[in-house]
Amino acid sequence: MKIIYNKYFPFGSFFATNIFGIIFCRSDKGRLSEKDKNHEYIHTLQQREMLFIGFALWYYIEWLLRAVKCRSFMTAYRQLYFEREAYQMEHDLDYRHHRRHFEWWYMFVRKESLLHEIGEFYGDIAAFIRKDFLLAKYLYALLLAIVVVVAQVYFHVYDVLIAPYYADGTSMIRIPLIYIAMYFLVLLPTLAMHGEWWRLRRWQVWVFPVILLAIDGIGQGYHGYIQWADHHGEWFKDKYYLQLVGSFLFRSVFIVFMLCLFRKFAIGRFGLYGLKRSSKYLRVYAFIYVLLLPMFLFVAFTPQFLDYYPKMDIVYYDGALGWERWQLIGLFEICYANDYIGVEGMFRGALVIGLTRWLGCRTVLPMALTYMCIHLGKPDLELCSSVLGGYILGILACRTHHLWGGIIIHLGIAMFFEVVGITRLLL
C-alpha cells in the first residue's frame, strides 16, 4: 500500500483518502498510525472487490443520498457502509487476514432487502470477472469489437456481405460462417492465453458451437418464408404482413430445432437451458429495467431508432388479412417475443449454460462477441451496447444457471421500443 504525504490533498478536515489503493495524506496533520493504515487498507480491500469504479460510484452516490436525508455531509460520511466497516474494524490489525469479501454488506444490510440482493448480484459479476480476467484477452476482445463496429458503421459490412444475398439463399451460408468465425476467433486465443489447450481435446468444444451457430445462422439467413407469404397472401398487404411474421416465426422454428438437437446430445444439469424455476435476482433485474427506462425512452427517439422501430409498422400493415389492428399487432408481437426468447435460449442457454461443463467460465466472452454479430444491420448504438449487455447477461447465466434475467431485460427492451414506436405511429 503506497502512501503519499503532501500539504494540500485531501481537502478540508480530512486527514487521508484512499484512491485506487494509493493513500494521500496531509503531512501538516501528522503521520498515519497503524490503526489509520489498517482503516485505509480496509478501503483498499473494498475497492478491489468492487473493481474500483464500482466502489467510487457506490460511495459517492450513497454519500449524496444520505447527505440529502440527514442534511449533513459529515454525518452522512460516518453512516456510509464502507466507512462503518472501516471504523468498526480499524482496531483489529489482523482483520485483513480473516475478512470475507463484501463484509461491509453482510454486516449492515438486511438479507431480505433488495439492497442486499443488489450486493450479491454485483458480487457475482465481480467474482466472475476476477476469475476470468486476463488483460491481454480482454484487450484482444475489445479490439475485435472495435473492428466489428468500424466495419459496420464506416464500411456497412451488413449491406455489403449479407443483405444482398438473402434473395439467392447464400445468406444461409454467409451468416453461419460469420458467427462461427467470430466464436473461434475469440475462443482459441482465450484458451491459449489461459494455457488451457487441454479443453480443445474434447470434441464437444468443437462440434456443439458449430452446430448451434450454424443452425441459428441458417435460421437468420433463411428467406423461404417469402414464397410462403406470397402463396398464402391475396392482397399485397397480406403478403407483406405474412413476410414480417414469417421472418420471426421461421427463425424461431430453426432455434427450437437447434435446442432440441443440442439437448439430445448434451443432457444439461440446469433445466432446459436455464428455463427452470428460479427467482434468483429477479427483483434486481426488474429494478435495473425500471432504472434504465428513461434512457430507453431517450434512445427510442434518436434518428436511427426512429427509422428501425417499431418492427410492426401498423399504419403500413393496417387492414391486412381483414383483421383488426389489435389482432395484427398481437400476432406479430407474440412471434417477435418468441424469437427473443429463442435467442436467449441459444446464446445464454446453450452457448453458456450448456457448454460450461466443458469450457467453464471461458464460454462467456466468445458468446458475447458472437452475440454482437447478430446485431449487424441494427442501429449503431444497439450494436455497440450488445457486446457489453451480452457479456453481463452471459456472466449472470453462468453464475445463476437460469435465463430469466436475460429474458426480462432483453425482451423488455425490445417490447419497450415496440410500444413506444407503435404509440408514436397511432397518435
Order of helices and strands: EEEHHHHHHHHHHHHHHHHHHHHH
The structural class is mainly alpha
Question: What is the strand tally?
Answer: 3
Strand content: under 5%
Poorly predicted runs: 268-272
Helix content: over 70%
Q: Tell me the distance between the termini.
A: 61 Å
Characterize the quaternary organization of these chains.
Answer: single chain
Radius of gyration: 26 Å
**Biggest β-sheet strands, sense, barrel:** 3 strands, mixed
User: Biggest sheet, strands in spatial order?
Assistant: 1-3-2
Shape from CA axes?
A: elongated
pLDDT averaged residue by residue? 84
How many helices? The count is 21
Description:
It is a single chain. The protein is mostly helical and 427 residues long. Helix content is 70%, strand content 3%. The protein has 21 helices and 3 strands. It has helices at residues 34-49, 53-70, 73-79, 81-89, 95-98, 103-108, 114-132, 135-153, 157-161, 171-193, 203-221, 225-232, 236-265, 282-300, 303-308, 314-317, 325-353, 356-359, 364-373, 380-400, 404-426; strands spanning 2-6, 16-19, 22-26. It has a 3-stranded mixed beta sheet, with helices on one face. Helix 10 packs antiparallel against helix 11 (203-221). The longest helix is centred in the middle third of the chain and has 30 residues, at 236-265. The protein starts with a strand and ends with a helix.
